[in-house]
Amino acid sequence: MNTLPKQIHIKEEGPREGFQFEKGPIPTARKIELIDALSRTGVKQMQIVSFVNPKAVPGMADAEEVVRGITPVPGVAYTGLWFNDQGLERAISTGRLEIKGSINLSASAKFLQRNLNRAPQQQIAVTRGMIDTYRQKNIEVERATIMAAFGCNFEGDVSADRVVDLVGQLVDLATEQGIVLGRMSLADTMAWATPLSIKRTVGAVQDKFPDLDLELHLHDTRGMGIANAYAGLEMGVQRFDSSVAGLGGCPFACHAGAAGNVCTEDLVFMCDEVGIETGIDLEALLKCGRLAEDVVGHPLPGSVMKGGSLRRLREKLSKAASA
Amino acid sequence: MNTLPKQIHIKEEGPREGFQFEKGPIPTARKIELIDALSRTGVKQMQIVSFVNPKAVPGMADAEEVVRGITPVPGVAYTGLWFNDQGLERAISTGRLEIKGSINLSASAKFLQRNLNRAPQQQIAVTRGMIDTYRQKNIEVERATIMAAFGCNFEGDVSADRVVDLVGQLVDLATEQGIVLGRMSLADTMAWATPLSIKRTVGAVQDKFPDLDLELHLHDTRGMGIANAYAGLEMGVQRFDSSVAGLGGCPFACHAGAAGNVCTEDLVFMCDEVGIETGIDLEALLKCGRLAEDVVGHPLPGSVMKGGSLRRLREKLSKAASA
Question: Which residues touch A40 (CB under 8 Å, ≥6 apart)?
Fold first, then answer.
């Protein structure tokens, strides 16, 4: 029954997802404090800022300052997010971020229009241009993403066939310029996925593209995040994005309805309990979850930071037994 | 891949779990308001009160008054919880509850001691006596429960073998008095289960006792509730306890760390989305979730009541498309 992977790679996206989303303002120093604390948990990759228009996303206006302020820990790759050449240039200028290329298409034309103000053909042109830019700058195209891969609030359900088709388009766009795509992220941007659709879509992509390394980006708006992650694990997925404390959403009065990525501590807890290595120290991470609540100034959705780890309980019981 | 059951039976435990847990006081009329609203969602069984010592559980001091006050809806079975003859007599006296026998053992001796102040041998004697009482009163013994079936905060992990052994003990106790046990509930009382341990333990019990109808009672303290429920569904489990809005716990400042049963709306949402019938109207249930928050006066953990159902979104999209 247990065909779970032996280990997985978690990309912490809490700082980027969270500071972008929070109505704030959150002092730059506190953002840096949380990023530095996360750096010491064993996490190996962390997306800490996005380089977007500060008028559209005021919470990211201090992106450069945040990057300048952190104390990098060896072995941790700090990354940023961008959607155009200007954003990429800003990321490169920091001189402190891991710069790898990422391209994406959206399974929903309407979401693409609302989110990036582009039509599908424009997005393909932009993607072609991005690949060209990466090639010219000798930047590795590390991965491609299908946004809204499981459904869209503005367009509805997305079939596994549609996702397979889009994966093919991304592979072809890379191949056109002599690039072999190694990694494909399926993003449940608007929280439409269920464990069943995760298994269906991941399975369909694996069947058609067995060499692609799949990655899941799961939002938790409808409480399915951890169940969806487990479905991914059962399908052999070994890469997950997640968000400390569930940062990036607040299912309470502050921002009704929204929710961030699946919570990192809850994912690490589940992995610990079923014997999957994450390389992350859960107890240190739980402290970061509580710090995140303090930094944003309101409760966040993570469960294990409130319920406590079982490892800690087992240690207490074992001490009591041997005393 | 999809071997999920076609339909499941959900027992709503929110009122009993919640009103027992909340520091309150909650006016009796408001308890009745929530129970009556839940009665109109399509739920077929609801545990609304427990008959316990009012000094130990002040929130249940008005149990009889609550039962007297509800407006029973035909087709809904209202039940109560008791742990001894005195509690059973109180339940019978109401004249309005479905009285079915339930017996239980604990996988953890230490939990049993703390929760019911009984040693394992005492619990077996009590159980034998309960069966005898039910038999004499012509009350059907509907189900047996293993408490702490997946782990215990005071004793640690519980193996699948241990659970199989306890299931055997309960079956034997019933058989001694000529009763065939049809239903067995495995309760993750202290939220130690993972999807993996659910599959292992449920699988082990099914292998040894293929005729038993299994039921899961899943607490959500560490955020695994929905993932554990899905693991149960994949194993063919068709009976679940759950709690509207996640009542019975409050993972926020009010009662740090505790959490109720898996949230009914989130479970019904997941079932709706993967094509499993529950007989429950999700939109009506979401209103009950919000009512539950109003009744207890603080946020509750349920996700879908904040994120919204997808059915509602699909309807909007389909209307817009045909307009």
Answer: A73, A284
For chain A, the residue count is 323
On whether the CB atoms of residues A187 and A217 are closer than 8 A, the answer is yes
User: Which CA distances in Å does B91 have to A221, A306, B82, B83, B139?
Assistant: 40, 35, 8, 11, 13
Residue B6 burial class via C-beta count within 10 angstroms: exposed 0-12, middle 13-18, buried 19 and up: exposed
d(CA A102, CA A122): 17
Same fold, B1-100+262-323 and B101-242: yes
Contact status of A322 with chain B (Cβ, < 8 Å): no
Q: What are the residues whose beta carbons fall under 8 Å from the beta carbon of A253, sequence distance 6 or more? A: B299
Task: Collect all residues of chain B within an 8 Å Cβ-Cβ radius of residue A306.
Answer: 221, 251-252, 256-257, 259
Residue with tokens 């589940």: A270
**Whole-number Å distance between alpha carbons of A163 and A176:** 20
To the nearest 10 degrees (0 to 180), the angle between helices B282-296 and B28-39 is: 170
Structural element, H or E, at residue B185: strand B183-188
B7: DSSP letter = B
Task: Write out the catalytic residue numbers of B.
Answer: 250
Q: How far apart are CA A285 and CA A73, in angstroms?
A: 16
pTM for this prediction: 0.95
Q: What is the average pLDDT score of chain B? A: 93
By C-alpha distance, the chain A residue nearest B275 is: A196
Contacts of B1 in chain A (CB under 8 A): 196, 199-200, 203
Q: What is the 3-state secondary structure (H, E, C) of B66-104?
A: HHHHCCCCCCCEEEEECCCHHHHHHHHHHCCCCCCEEEE
Choose from B4, B152, B222 for mutation: most chain A CBs within 10 A. Answer: B222
**Whether the Cβ atoms of residue B11 and residue B47 lie closer than 8 Å to each other:** yes
Only one residue has tokens 């240690």, namely A315
Taking an 8 Å cut-off on Cβ atoms, the answer to whether A227 and B223 are in contact is: no
Provide Rg for chain A, Cα atoms. 19
Q: What tokens were used for B79?
A: 């039940």
- Check: CB of residue A158 under 8 Å from CB of residue A196: no
Task: Tell me the per-residue pLDDT of A87-122, one tens digit each, with 9 for 90 and over.
Answer: 999 999 999 999 999 999 999 999 888 888 889 999
B253 interaction partners in chain A (CB closer than 8 Å) = 299
B297–A contact, CB cutoff 8 A = no
B205 CB neighbour count, 10 Å cutoff: 23
Reported as a single tens digit per residue, the pLDDT across B231-257 is 999 999 999 999 999 998 654 444 445
Q: What is the pLDDT of residues B9-23, one digit of tens each?
A: 999 999 998 888 887
Quote the distance between the C-alpha of residue A72 and its chain's center: 20
* Architecture of the domain made up of A7-100+270-323: Alpha-Beta Barrel (3.20)
Determine whether the interchain pair B222/A269 forms a contact, defined as Cβ–Cβ distance below 8 Å.
Answer: yes
Fold entry, domain B1-100+262-323: TIM Barrel (3.20.20)
Q: What is the pLDDT of residue B258?
A: 62
At A266 the three-state DSSP class reads helix
Tell me whether B320 touches chain A (CB under 8 Å): no
CATH fold label, B101-242: TIM Barrel (3.20.20)
Q: Are A269 and A304 in contact (CB under 8 A)?
A: yes
Helix, strand and coil percent figures for chain B, each rounded to 5: 50, 15, 35
Which residue ranges make up each domain of chain B? 1-100+262-323, 101-242
